[in-house]
């Protein structure tokens, strides 16, 4: 954890549609440097996907946004405020669901009564709707629930909190297949132009057609922050049975039945939709954001 807070980082002038801005962030765990000169901008009204390899710093980045960790250099603003100052008016606009979480020995309804007052726009009716959709028994004790059931309770709570920013770290871990589908439907229905989601995940196939724009974290930097559509406008993905020429292809991957090839799009080119897994592999392999703006 950071040993101290940098005194009064330069103020950031944020546009109305910007929810988060991180400027020149440096962060280390003791002797291990994780971020150096990291920049990131997140705009309101989107469901962002945060992708990266194990150890890339995704969870650390999320905790910096929540004010649970302090950057050693640089400036962070969330809705024009510094999360490190832990101002109540900002904290009530952020809901953070970590990948691992302790829960008290109480029923879900008791948990609701204890914590919902911290969120001024909490919607008790919608909490009940979300729990019903997720098939959660509110009379069961939280500590006696499975991991998946616990996560459904907290997802329902977060969505019903009506915060402007929802940060979800690996939200589909522990969910069964029907629940993953319900998660996608519920998040999509809860989205408004005034809300912003940041979803960190390794399960990119669970998030297909939900998260966009995509943020890719690699080697201590944000190397991609763009929409899938912007990439699809420039590049095309095709399956070929013969080994492609490396000088004409941006990315190749051996797959069942041949080779998957990514190349620059021309007017005559038709191809397959670019999936998130391939997008991630392409960006990391080409590195340093050659396919998308940061």
TrEMBL record:
Transmembrane segments annotated in the record for this chain: none
InterPro entries named in the record: AAA+_ATPase (IPR003593), ABC_transporter-like_ATP-bd (IPR003439), ABC_Transporter_VariousFunc (IPR051782), P-loop_NTPase (IPR027417)
SMART domains, A to Z: AAA
Matching Gene3D superfamilies: P-loop containing nucleotide triphosphate hydrolases (3.40.50.300)
Q: Highest taxon of the source?
A: Bacteria
Q: Which UniProt keywords apply?
A: ATP-binding, Nucleotide-binding, Transport
Task: Tell me which residues make up the ABC transporter domain.
Answer: 20-244
Task: Write out the GO MF terms.
Answer: ATP binding; ATP hydrolysis activity
Put simply, this protein is called: ABC transporter related protein
